[in-house]
Amino acid sequence: MPFAGRDMYRLVAGMAIALVSSAFALGIPIALEALVDGPLSGNNPSLVWPAVGLVALLGLLEALFVFLRRVTVLTPGTRIDSRIRNAMYDHLQNLPVAFHDKWQSGQLLSRANSDVSLIRRWMSFGLVLLVSNSIAIVMGVGILFTWSPTLAVVFLVCSIPMFIFGSRFRNRFAGLSRAAQDQWGDVATSVEESVHGIRVLRAFGRGDDSLSRFAERASLGRKLEVVKGNARATLTFWLVWIPDFALATCLLVGVWLASHGELTTGQLFAFFATAAVLAGPIESIGYLLALTLEAQSGLDRIFEIFDHDNSIIDPQKPVTPKNATGSLVFENVHYRHSDGLARDLLNGINLEIRPGETMALVGATGSGKTVMTALPARLYDVTLGRILLDGVDVRDMELETLRTRIAMAFEDATLFSDSVRNNVLLGRHDLRDRPPAESDAVLAQALSIAEAEFVYELPDGVDTVIGEQGLSLSGGQRQRLALARAIAAAPEVLVLDDPLSALDVETEARVEAALRKVLATTTALVVAHRPSTVMLADRVALLDKGRIAAVGTHSELLASSAKYRHLISSLSDEPINPDDEVGS
Amino acid sequence: MSTTGVAGEDRQDFTSRENEQIRARSLGLLQSLVKPHRARFGWSAIMVVLSTAAQVAGPILIAWGIDVGLPAAVDNGNFVPIMTIVAAFLATGISAAGFLALYTRWSIAMSQDILGELRRRIFAHTQRLSLEFHERYTSGRIIARQTSDIDTLGELLSGGLSNLVAGLLFLAFTAIALVSIDPISGIPLAIAMIPIVGVTLWFSNSSRREFRASRIYSTRLIIQFVESMTGIRAVKSFRREPVDRESYADKVEDYREATRRTIHVFGIYDPALKAIGTLTVSVVLLFGAFRVIDGTFEVGALLAAVLYTRRFFGPIENLAMFYNSFQSASAALEKISGFLDEKPSVIEPLNPEPFNATSGDLALHNVSFSYSAGTPVLPTFTLTIDGGQTVALVGPTGAGKSTLAKLISRFYDPTTGVISLDGRDLTTIADADLRREVTLVTQEAYLFSGSIADNIRLGKSDATDAEIEAAARAVGAHDFITALPDGYDTDVNKRGNRISAGQRQLVSFCRAFIANPRVLILDEATASLDIPSERLIQSALQKLLQGRTAIIIAHRLSTVAIADRVLVMDHGVIVEDGPTADLLKGTGRFATLHRAWRDSLV
Ligand SMILES: Nc1ncnc2c1ncn2[C@@H]1O[C@H](COP(=O)(O)OP(=O)(O)OP(=O)(O)O)[C@@H](O)[C@H]1O
Ligand SMILES: Nc1ncnc2c1ncn2[C@@H]1O[C@H](COP(=O)(O)OP(=O)(O)OP(=O)(O)O)[C@@H](O)[C@H]1O
Ligand SMILES: [Mg+2]
Ligand SMILES: [Mg+2]
Hints:
The structure holds two protein chains of two kinds. Chain A has two domains: 5-306, ABC transporter type 1, transmembrane domain (ABC transporter transmembrane region fold); 328-583, P-loop containing nucleotide triphosphate hydrolases (Rossmann fold, 3-Layer(aba) Sandwich). Helices cover 63% and strands 10% of the residues of chain A. Chain A has helices at 7-42, 48-94, 97-102, 105-147, 149-196, 198-203, 207-259, 265-306, 369-374, 399-405, 420-424, 436-449, 475-488, 505-521, 531-534, 554-560, 562-568, 578-583, and strands at residues 328-335, 346-353, 358-363, 384-389, 392-393, 406-409, 418-419, 465-466, 493-497, 523-527, 539-544, 547-552. In chain A, the strands form three sheets. A six-stranded mixed sheet of chain A has the order 6-9-10-3-11-12. Chain A is elongated. By secondary structure, chain B is of the alpha/beta class. Helix content of chain B is 65%, strand content 10%. In chain B, a hairpin with a 5-residue loop joins strand 1 and strand 2 (376-385). In chain B, helix 5 runs antiparallel to helix 9 (299-341). The chains are: A alpha/beta, B alpha/beta. Chains A and B meet through helix 1, helix 2, helix 3, helix 4 and helix 5 of A and helix 2, helix 3, helix 4, helix 5 and helix 6 of B. The structure holds adenosine-5'-triphosphate (2 copies) and magnesium ion (MG) (2 copies). Residues 401-402, 443, 523 of chain B line the site of one magnesium ion.
């Protein structure tokens, strides 16, 4: 069992303690018998006290050992649970973006939460009982043999069907339990989407539709649970009925044997007394088997994620570029999504961004700009070719170094539930153990470049909690904070994906003016849809059909490339409104 | 402090009055869930009783077999009695197994029905609650309610019922049996009830506290999990992993400690009951033994009394187990019932008259709005938009444009004043009617996992494939859709990750196009598009908006081209308002803006 580590010993100790406590429990009837046969039949009042005392002592010891068992297995059970949780979270964080593109977080959550809890319950409860009940059954059958081997064999033979039904159940239930767990993961996904997409659902009045879709998914889950329950019910039937059938046969055979003098009444009596005790543990096997199978498929689901190879990892021998000038070179870069189109989305990109240069990336909707910007920081890895940062292949650099050197602003501004300060200084781990004045200065500067001074007017200023668990901001406000975050990281290379799309013209102009100062010394790749954003750049690269079709200054491209004109200029081709002519 | 709704969800200590309130609320919920299943609940209980009775009959039959059947066979070679007994034994075995199997089937079906109903209620309520609530209450919390809280309740329902019914019945039977054999032995048993009640009260209080804590920590875990998986790109690119890992590990540790305590509390309670049981048995034994020695009591009766007393504590442990999962489930139910108790702040009218927009006149009369009291976002203003007009709404970021759009589509109700459509106050229009007539395309283009076609169909649930394609052609999305691996049936993956940001905007535009509302509000609906696509949308809009009321929010002033009228908003105030051409000719704010924009173009 991975994740158990040293806690496994404590679990085993727990099982041992469980056996001791049942030994004390078994001792009580013996003490009782001693009392009845001793003081009571001997009419010896003076011995009553010690005998009763013994019974009480044994009982109290049993209680004590039950307590000890619980204490012993308690901590390891919960510790294994949290170890899996942490390992899983860790692994998920490290898995590449391409994995997260595909996997619904509802599915991930159901694995990282429900399945892990299931395993904990199995560990600290199911496993212990399964082992101790199995031992009890084996020992009980052993005792049966001492009373009458013939009857014990009859009992065993009659019990064979139990194994058949058991293994049939096993095959059936394992698949069902897996299907149900997957289904509940889908249900969790439905819930998550319906909350995250609530504005869209509200805007179109589609709450009822999404409810009925959810209800459909949930009722499929319910159906699976009911089928699972029926399988369990069927197994329970056989587990109760087959031992009874075996006992009935034994009774008949036993009486027949006794009538032939091959068995005494006392032996017969003892045989059935022991066999009757077995019924409880045998019946419980059904429930425990189901729990074990569920834990098993939960574990499978968890390991599916652990087994997911992380392709984007630190290199064996990391190389750190000698200089930190910030030159970024795409060399024959190809990229293809595993579930995307059958041809390469990026099909041989060659582009050199010189140190300190700002390169605008222009291309039609869906041409692959965002994917291309995600490659240098290794959010995706190139399928072919290479990207060099300061002359070193980014795959030869440590991720930490690489991502410290490259900061990004994404097209959707993801902010975390945290203060404005922490959101903006997200990339500056180094500031945590510096004087606060220093981090305040960095913060203030980044906010002023991104024109995000509005934060000072928020209820708690820069300490206001924003993000999902905090204050909501307007679209443009969020985008400016995401921009400030990238700037505050003070990277060598800034990668900005359409960073000004949600800003009005005037704010945009102010941000650009301030941004220019930063960009004068920082290498940057800026995705642009508008001429105004292109203005930030020294040169422009035109992405078309997976290749860089042209590179040059804005005016060069306007002059030389019809495609570029088509993409970037709204006026030159066809004026759409005569009013525009009036204004000019 | 308040405990209504979700307020106080993160608190662990309540005054006893608050405790009472919360308890009543969650018990009420449980009752309303179980009530429709009373009959099935009853039948399941009967199954348990019948099965138990049949199982108890087994050993008696074996005893007969040995006492009666064996002598008959040994002495007279008469196998008839033993055959009869074996037949009877087989019959009771079959019925014990059959009743138990039936009980298992029914109780699982029943508990799944109850859970399904609760899931449905939470989901429906989530959809009903206003945006204002969702902004306060994290998505992670709702997910926690729908997953781990429901799971907890499921544990009670699946395992608890048989424990409860069987426990209570056994308890009653053994107590009666004991008193009928030996009333005196009943006295220690009665006295034992005092410490039992004592430890149970202790357990009740501490376990409630610990389970509550465990729910709170489990919710926090889920919140962080969801948030960091959703923002994974930013997490990676800003190297937040170590920080997140640490804070997640802290939360896991809190949760572990809380869980450990919940189990630990029961780990004290259970052996404590065992110890009380042992002491009671010893006292019964002691009294009995002296009476046996006195000759006033039979040994057999003493044994029976001792056995019954011992047996009395078996079901008590069953009940304790039930109580444990009940406590755990009620901590979850507290949170769920609090959530269900939340009232939407935007309320659907009770008996609305049907509404069909005619001309699509919008009027905002003395409207003001603030998200939180004290900081008005939109100071009082009055605005009318005639039906059929296309209005451009421009202004600096954070001015309140989206806020205004959300007011008109009734995501929020104004703090003061009235908004009306064709003279009808929005608050008197049924939600379904309003959504049919007024559609808002939000700033964020959210796509659901599923096919492109399904995502477009969100605009109109009965749209045919042909309609969908027509809409996609109109906004210029058809080409990229057909280029996808499965065309319109391509699964767009989580949040539409499989297509680009601009393509997502096109799809959400298709939705609006196909919804065909009377009043259309576009909030930055083309911000991520390239210029040719934007131009295409513009001409599609020109056709679409004929005879419709439209409000178009855009920073790229090209939109203005198709607008009849322009509103300039700053700091929540409409500072300029007039026909597009007039404003353009003037020297006001808009003219300046427009010039700046035009200069930025090439
Ligand atoms: N995770 C993915 N799996 C499969 N295909 C994808 C994935 N992400 C993007 N694509 C495809 O790759 C193409 C390029 O996407 P990308 O997001 O890079 O476009 P873009 O140039 O940034 O467009 P936009 O201007 O709209 O943002 C799109 O056609 C999209 O369908
Ligand atoms: N849900 C909310 N809760 C509290 N304040 C909010 C909320 N949404 C927006 N605000 C605040 O209200 C003001 C107006 O926001 P709104 O979203 O209406 O701006 P906007 O004009 O649409 O800006 P943008 O062009 O950036 O989208 C902003 O200061 C914003 O911070
Ligand atoms: Mg993009
Ligand atoms: Mg807005």
